[in-house]
Design brief:
By secondary structure, the chain is of the alpha/beta class. The chain has two domains: 67 residues, DnaJ domain (Helix Hairpins, Orthogonal Bundle), CATH 1.10.287.110; 134 residues, HSP40/DNAj peptide-binding domain (Sandwich), CATH 2.60.260. It is built from six helices and eight strands; from the N terminus they run H-H-H-H-E-E-E-H-E-H-E-E-E-E. Strands 1, 2, 5 and 6 form a four-stranded mixed beta sheet that branches. A hairpin with an 8-residue loop joins strand 7 and strand 8.
């Protein structure tokens, strides 16, 4: 079992690419080379050269990697715990100015009538209830956003042996898009997070996520 961490000797991570390993080796080797280095150090040069010979060879590197003690490997971040999705328009708390106007606003965006969806920004407030563990360690909050897609039955024409019964001649049907909000560790009760839905095709609509922490007695 290896006693030295060759990645640490070269100052690179275990995921370093070959080019990064080569650059790290050249930078250190030129500095400590016993003949031409600014800070000659024959022992350090030998150590760096041996590390580079192993890590620059794919077969030797794989062999070395499987022998690294678990304690010397860099820690792997635990993935964020994921909550059940919140479906926008079903779990809303408050809407300004009204839920009907927000739905119409979304529809206009996907129909392409962007000149009609101008004016002030709409706000949709949602509650996200976290337990104490989720608030302490953080979690991922999936969100389902309403949107419209081209009707697969008529391919967006609105016609299928007459008026398309799937989209009623509109050429588009209701669907959803998913995005997620990463809640950081240490989130407190009452905090607010904001998501601009411009990235999912809905301009001037802001989600306000209101955090509520459910106390466990």
């Amino acid at each position: 079992m290896p006693k030295r961490d060759l990645y640490r000797i070269l100052g690179v991570t275990r995921q370093a690419q070959p080019a990064e390993i080569k650059r790290a080796y050249r930078r250190i080797a030129f500095n400590v080379h016993p003949d031409v280095g600014e800070r000659p150090d024959p022992e350090h040069f030998r150590e760096v050269h041996e590390a580079y010979e192993i890590l620059s060879n794919p077969d030797r590197r794989r062999s070395y990697d499987v022998q690294i003690p678990i304690t010397s490997r860099p820690p792997v971040a635990e993935p964020l715990r994921s909550k059940a999705p919140i479906t926008v328009m079903e779990d809303f708390l408050t809407v300004r100015p009204s839920i009907e106007e927000v739905l119409d606003h979304i529809r206009q965006n996907f129909f392409g009538y962007r000149e009609k969806s101008g004016g002030p920004r709409r706000h949709l407030r949602l509650e996200a209830v976290l337990d104490t563990e989720e608030a302490r360690f953080g979690c991922r909050l999936p969100l389902r956003i309403p949107c419209y897609i081209r009707c697969p039955a008529c391919h967006g024409t609105g016609q299928w042996w007459g008026v398309c019964q799937a989209c009623y001649g509109d050429g588009i049907i209701e669907s959803t898009r998913e995005l997620s909000l990463n809640i950081p560790p240490g989130t407190r009760d009452g905090e607010m997070y904001y998501i601009d839905l411009g990235d999912v095709g809905v301009g001037k609509l802001l989600l306000e996520i209101h955090i509520i922490i459910a106390r466990q007695w």
